[in-house]
């Protein structure tokens, strides 16, 4: 689910119409608070600007990337795991719960703003043809299940999310999201330190789609994850370079609203391999890259055979990842091992000369034990079957762009430690110009 080091983060399905067990529902649900008026698009900012967020986190040892999102009035800050593999954003609810996220002081408390079943959004995210509720004034419940068997159960609410756009305007739109009171986390690790998940998918339930339907941003989302940790995330298309971006079509057959593309062929050191026909999902909620068992074994064979005769030997005592190697002395960084490993790349066959480069730093990590480990894992072992996931380790130091309007996915090598503004970059830290992780005062 992207909230633990080996999480797979994409929504499998939504279920609405669960038993109304949330205690904070009322007949005034979904009504704006009288003291605050929602933001409406104007001709000056309609579809003409972007919201930018500073990203924290890393692939190893933390295992996920997060942004801080302000919600409510007065606003409260929530650290959310960014997940391009799921749609619905949810935060930990201030209610009796099971599997509560941490820390405990980051809880969202509804205030007569629960989404009702009569709301159009409730019916849009309900997959079946039957009514999600028995009465229109009931609360709209949700359940999200993730591929790693994690889940979130709760109720939909709608509240103000203050944002400052790149054109300088300040908006406070009302956005629907999940208030989760029953979370399930897979694996032996404890619940993460995040307060929830920021779903970046393209369904009507996502924050991106809601901002677009309000006429506030283009239906485009992107991220730039730094290999040194951190980076940035953006809604809208202001930051996309005018040249240099490589584009490949999204798979139109993706019924799950995933950011999928393919087929792709794996190249090893610039030469084609027998790993072909891969359909891949770009998933910022997954720490590592996962291939189906046949493709995974093909990658392992290529790498292992190429290392024969080198100074590296298997480090079977290192539990960090399934396949690790050690040298004559502990490694301090990937610079110490790059000479041992060849570059990989994925060649997408629907368009000529479209390749996603995977240099050694895009598929290897250095563990706390000083060993180097393969960050491409066997998806069959975590229940992914034939799915192939391109996770954070392979997305680092690239701007990834998911353009839902043109139905294409793009990438370009980038310095993710600095925020570009159209075709130029700032020399200073970008947290002040456009980062949206701050409060917006009422008098603004």
TrEMBL record:
The keyword Hydrolase applies. The active site is at residues 83, 283. One of its GO terms (molecular function) is aspartic-type endopeptidase activity. The keyword Cell division does not apply. Keywords: Aspartyl protease, Hydrolase, Protease, Repeat, Signal. Coiled coil: none annotated. Residues 65-412 form the Peptidase A1 domain. CDD domains: nucellin_like. Residues 1-27 form the signal peptide. Pfam families: TAXi_C, TAXi_N. Belongs to the peptidase A1 family. This is Aspartic proteinase Asp1. The lineage of its organism: Eukaryota, Viridiplantae, Streptophyta, Embryophyta, Tracheophyta.
């Amino acid at each position: 689910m992207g909230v633990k080091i080996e999480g797979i983060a994409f929504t499998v399905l939504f279920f609405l119409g669960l038993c109304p067990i949330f205690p904070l529902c009322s007949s005034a649900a979904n009504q704006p608070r009288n003291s605050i008026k929602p933001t409406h698009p104007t001709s000056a900012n309609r579809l003409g600007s972007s919201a930018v967020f500073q990203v924290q986190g890393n692939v190893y040892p933390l295992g996920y990337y997060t942004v801080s999102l302000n919600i409510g009035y007065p606003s409260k800050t929530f650290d959310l795991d960014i997940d391009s593999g799921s749609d619905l954003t949810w935060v930990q609810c201030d209610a009796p719960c099971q599997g509560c996220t941490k820390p405990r002081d980051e809880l969202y408390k509804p205030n007569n703003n629960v989404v009702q079943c009569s709301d159009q959004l409730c019916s849009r995210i309900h997959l079946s043809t039957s009514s999600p509720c028995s009465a229109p004034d009931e609360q709209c419940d949700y359940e999200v299940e993730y591929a790693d068997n994690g889940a979130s159960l709760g109720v939909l609410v709608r509240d103000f999310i203050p944002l400052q756009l790149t054109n300088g305007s300040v908006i406070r739109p009302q956005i629907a999201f999940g208030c989760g009171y029953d979370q399930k986390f897979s694996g032996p690790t404890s619940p993460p330190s995040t307060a929830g998940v920021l779903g970046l998918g393209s369904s009507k339930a996502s924050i991106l789609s809601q901002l677009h339907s309000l006429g506030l941003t283009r239906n485009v989302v992107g991220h730039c994850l730094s290999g040194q940790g951190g980076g940035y995330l953006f809604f809208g298309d202001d930051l996309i370079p005018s040249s240099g971006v490589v584009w490949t079509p999204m798979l139109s057959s993706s019924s799950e609203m995933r950011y999928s593309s393919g087929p792709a062929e794996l190249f090893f050191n610039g030469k084609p391999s027998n790993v072909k026909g891969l359909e891949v999902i770009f998933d910022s909620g997954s720490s590592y890259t996962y291939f189906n068992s046949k493709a995974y074994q093909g990658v392992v064979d290529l790498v292992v055979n190429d290392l024969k005769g080198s100074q590296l030997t298997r480090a079977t005592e290192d539990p960090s990842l399934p396949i690790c190697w050690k040298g004559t002395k502990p490694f301090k960084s990937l610079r110490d091992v790059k000479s041992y490993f060849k570059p990989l790349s994925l060649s997408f066959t629907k368009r000529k000369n479209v390749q996603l480069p995977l240099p050694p730093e895009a598929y290897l990590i250095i563990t706390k034990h000083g060993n180097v480990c393969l960050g491409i894992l066997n998806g069959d072992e975590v229940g992914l079957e034939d799915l192939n996931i391109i996770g954070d380790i392979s997305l680092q130091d690239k701007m990834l762009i998911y353009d839902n309007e043109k139905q294409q996915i793009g990438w370009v090598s980038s310095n993710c430690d600095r925020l570009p503004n159209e075709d130029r970059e700032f020399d200073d830290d970008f947290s002040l110009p456009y980062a949206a992780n701050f409060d917006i005062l009422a008098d603004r």
